[in-house]
Amino acid sequence: MRLTYFTVSNYRSITNAYKIDxxxxxxxxxxxxxxxxNLIKAxxxxxxxxxxxxxxxxxxxxxxxxxxxxxxxxxxxxKKKLKHKDTDLRLDFRLDDTEIxxxxxxxxxxxxxxxxxxxxxxxxxSISITVPKKGKNATALTGKLNIIASFIMQHIFMQYIPxxxxxxxxxxxxxxxxxxxxxxxxxxxxxEAQKYIAEYQQAQLASLSQRIKVPLAEFMPSVKSxxxxxxxxxxxxxxxxxxxxxxxxxxxxxxxxxxxxxxxxLTTMAILSQTDAKNRIVIIDEPEAHLHPEAVHYLKKVLFxxxxxxxxxxxxxxxxxxxxxxxxxxxxxxxGEAKPAxxxxxxxxxxxxxxxxNLMYSDYVVIVEGPSDKNVMEKFLRRDPALAExxxxxxxxVRSIGxxxxxxxxxxxxxxxxxxxxxxxxxxxxGKEAARDVQQQLDIGSDRFRYFMINGPRSKSELEDLYKPDxxxxxxxxxxxxxxxxxxxxxxxxxxxxxxxxxAAAAGRELSEEELNNxxxxxxxxxxxxxxxxxxxxxGIQLLDAISSDIKSDxxxxxxxx
Length: 562
Description:
By secondary structure, the protein is α/β, with parallel strands linked by helices. The protein has helices spanning about 35-50, 70, 95-105, 145-155, 165-185, 190, 195-220, 260-275, 295-305, 345-350, 370-380, 385-390, 405-415, 430-440, 470-480, 495-505, 515-530, 530-535, 540-560; strands spanning about 1-10, 15-20, 25-30, 85-95, 115-120, 125-130, 155-160, 225-230, 245-250, 255, 280-285, 310-315, 330-335, 335-340, 365-370, 395-400, 420-425, 450.
């Protein structure tokens, strides 16, 4: 079962949010006090009301869930022209074929897979819930509300994590997640024997403790172990009221209550990511709260992985969480309304991200290691008139980062400014290692990297391996006293600078890094000003044109979304 749409009107600052399309990942974006948190609280309210239906006959909404004086928009409470002063909530679900069959067996009604629930809370806090059905017997489903609500809650588990995650909030969230973890078992012995319950709980908590350690240790390498255990003073029959203790050993075994807010937040997210429950609606208000920027990148990786089996709703001020692959899944919350974003510049505006102000980055950046790579990449990009125009107006730039060691910080900054990019690196150990590090630490896809790969992935190569040796051999001999006519230079398994260094070493000479860079710069400037066919091998031209073509496709996809 999936939540497909959510509608809310007249709840706190939200006056109208009609049929918000719920994706696998839905990102709520807006300035402070525009209603992002209220929107997710409204969703939480709707699901809480459904959860209470099978337990009690709801004539009035429980006061702990809703208070008309506090939750109906204050500016509308005294409006005489407003005929109905109700808070309206609507949930639209989609059932798969198996669930449709199960629904028919339990409820006794055939539906086409679409199931809607309308919730109306009136000024006197009385509540009405209807389940409409098209065609004959249109009111039949509402009469079976208890069964339907129970059916929904058995197929969707909702987890709400507020922005302010105090110690009690952290324990509450963790406790609910552990409840859900334990609830998944269908073993009859668990239901029949309290001794077995205690043993089962201990085993599950021990397993979960080990799984939690993995994501926590990614951010905090000092974490040696994590231990979850239940207080012995609580009887197992009061499972929902038990006291859960979380202890983290990062050199000293310490209770979570004594840790900082960032660690508490990360621990909550770690448990969330490691529980096995599926078909959840996970709502997280400002997941970046209390976290260091490095942790935010790791958290994004954890949460987006979670969205593979669950629906994720995030309210955020951080551009890192923006879903750039699906612009419409980013919901703009502004002036009491919520609508899908249509362009990336809308999102930038609301988050205060202005690429023009940073004086460093364009909308699309081609990252290269050094100035020689920059000269050549710009040359090949300019072979395409459309890309040449984008280079001229600075929408597209080629940026030299002064060495592959700076790759991670460069991509981190580009992510913060919501720029699109691609990195073109040497096909050597340093380039591959830097790319792997960025992919792992910042959760960047491998499709963001290209390599000067001229003789296959296993042969080391760099930009200079794309040149024709005849184009520069005279220049190297006259200007740098390097003679490449030696047999050792023909060993294509080694990259260009290694072969040049070996030629110098054979003559008892050690080349400095500055000398090598001067050679590369001289060659790249001549290659930039000369003809491509004169300077580059056929394989080199084919490779550089292919990379340029990928960049062009990327850039025009970006332009189509703006």
